[in-house]
């Protein structure tokens, strides 16, 4: 018995020494963690794997530093000024002077709820132009809130024919028509301008809703000029901030439709009745409360918007650089014998590239190979998810050649595909 007690004591002491040694090693081993910096110009984020999925994306050091802003009251005058300016700069990115932005904690998906709950009343008709997985999503959301949904499905990798859109608009009265600007599942770029033009000609009372989560700040959007009534986005893609902010911009026409609704909004958190006074108060530099905004994320978003709207390169130059980066990556893929999911080059997104895997190779085999080389890419979505993979090239990856992100993507793509095909 005593020997067992002594053995247990020796074992406990041994574990204690090992635990102490482990704790000491944690303390003594250098950890790649940034020290407290005196200013954002001193701050450099830790080395990490290159994140090139179609969102979240790499963010600048200044944005990440802003996200580490000391905690402040969401009711403070200083925060109200930051929030208010963020609202104003959001308008600039989508080229509108009069639309109402809503900046609310949530993912881009919350934008679907906002449109479905605030603009479409139960029993009203909605037309969804479906170019992929995210078309399915917004259709499902609209139906959840009671809309009668018709869908025009594009062939896989294609876009909906505008003649079909016009025919559908003539067939019945639609409250909204929705377009996925870039379907993140396929990399297909749909042109919203012809759709908006068709609505003006055939059914001018219909609202044009643009799901631009994977398009804002990487694709051209001219909300006022094109007649877009709602733009849905999120913070973590072309807008270059961490995830967690749902961004919806509603035109004056859309807000009038909202004001004229005959039934109460069928949502609580997503209700513009609750959020509109908040947005107007903050833009007027006066804080108001319904639900706590993501204070630190708003600071990060503000910093990113400042870079997009007030710094070099300009917004137009950024869009041009996205196009150039996209062309370079797509050309490298073509030279490797890879085909894009979009069936025509002109309908391929500029902020991401979706590529079919080589014959006999699954995306679940390619992703770990990229990861071993320090590059994070995304697999497919939906029923064909094993057959293709996706590379994101938005924000600083696309516009800052000094980082070398594009060179690295191209080099690693060549290495991974060469290794995969050589094993067949």
UniProtKB/TrEMBL annotation:
Q: What is its EC number?
A: 2.6.1.44
Q: What GO CC annotations are associated with the protein?
A: peroxisome
Q: Which InterPro entries match?
A: Aminotrans_V_dom, Aminotrans_V_PyrdxlP_BS, PyrdxlP-dep_Trfase, PyrdxlP-dep_Trfase_major, PyrdxlP-dep_Trfase_small, SP_NH2Trfase/AEP_transaminase
Q: Where does substrate bind?
A: 390
The Aminotransferase class V domain is annotated at 64-258
Q: Which GO terms describe its molecular function?
A: alanine-glyoxylate transaminase activity; L-serine-pyruvate transaminase activity
Pfam families hit by this protein: Aminotran_5
Q: Give GO BP annotations, semicolon-separated.
A: glycine biosynthetic process, by transamination of glyoxylate
- Top-rank EC class of the record's enzyme: transferase
Could you say which protein family the record assigns here? Answer: Belongs to the class-V pyridoxal-phosphate-dependent aminotransferase family.
Indicate what this protein is called per its UniProt record: alanine--glyoxylate transaminase
């Amino acid at each position: 018995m005593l020997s067992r007690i002594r053995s247990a004591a020796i074992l406990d002491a041994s574990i204690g020494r090992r635990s102490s040694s482990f704790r000491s090693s944690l303390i003594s081993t250098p950890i790649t963690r940034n020290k407290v910096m005196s200013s954002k110009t001193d701050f450099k984020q830790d080395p990490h794997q290159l994140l090139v999925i179609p969102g979240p994306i790499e963010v600048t050091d200044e944005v990440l530093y802003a996200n580490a802003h000391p905690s402040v009251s969401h009711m403070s005058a200083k925060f109200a000024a930051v929030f208010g300016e963020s609202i104003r700069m959001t308008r600039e990115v989508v080229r509108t002077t009069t639309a109402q932005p809503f900046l609310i904690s949530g993912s881009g998906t919350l934008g679907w709820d906002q449109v479905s709950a605030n603009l479409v009343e139960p029993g009203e008709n909605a037309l969804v132009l479906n170019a992929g997985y995210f078309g399915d999503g917004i259709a499902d959301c609209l139906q959840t809130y009671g809309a009668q949904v018709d869908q025009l499905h594009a062939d896989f990798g294609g876009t909906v024919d505008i003649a079909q859109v016009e025919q559908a608009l003539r067939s019945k009265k639609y409250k909204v028509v929705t377009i996925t600007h870039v379907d993140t599942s396929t990399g297909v770029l749909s042109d919203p301008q012809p759709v908006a033009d068709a609505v003006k000609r055939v059914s001018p009372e219909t609202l044009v809703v643009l799901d631009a989560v994977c398009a804002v700040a990487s694709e051209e959007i001219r909300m006022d000029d094109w007649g877009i009534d709602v733009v849905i986005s999120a913070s973590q893609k072309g807008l270059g901030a961490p995830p967690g902010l749902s961004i919806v911009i509603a035109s004056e026409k859309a807000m009038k439709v909202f004001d004229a609704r005959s039934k109460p909004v069928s949502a609580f958190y997503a209700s513009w009745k609750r959020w509109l006074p908040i947005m107007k108060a903050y833009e007027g530099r006066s804080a108001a409360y319904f639900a706590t905004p993501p204070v630190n994320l708003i600071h990060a978003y503000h910093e990113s918007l400042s870079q997009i709207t007030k710094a070099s390169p300009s917004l137009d130059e950024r869009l041009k650089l996205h196009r150039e980066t996209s062309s370079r990556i797509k050309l490298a893929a073509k030279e490797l014998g890879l085909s894009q999911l979009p069936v025509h080059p002109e309908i391929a997104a500029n902020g991401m590239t979706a590529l079919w895997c080589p014959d006999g190779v699954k995306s679940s085999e390619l992703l770990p190979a990229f990861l071993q080389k320090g590059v994070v890419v995304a697999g497919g979505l939906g029923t064909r998810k094993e057959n293709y993979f996706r590379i994101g090239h938005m924000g600083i990856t696309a516009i800052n050649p000094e980082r070398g992100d594009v060179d690295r993507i191209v080099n690693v793509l060549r290495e991974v595909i060469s290794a995969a095909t050589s094993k067949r």
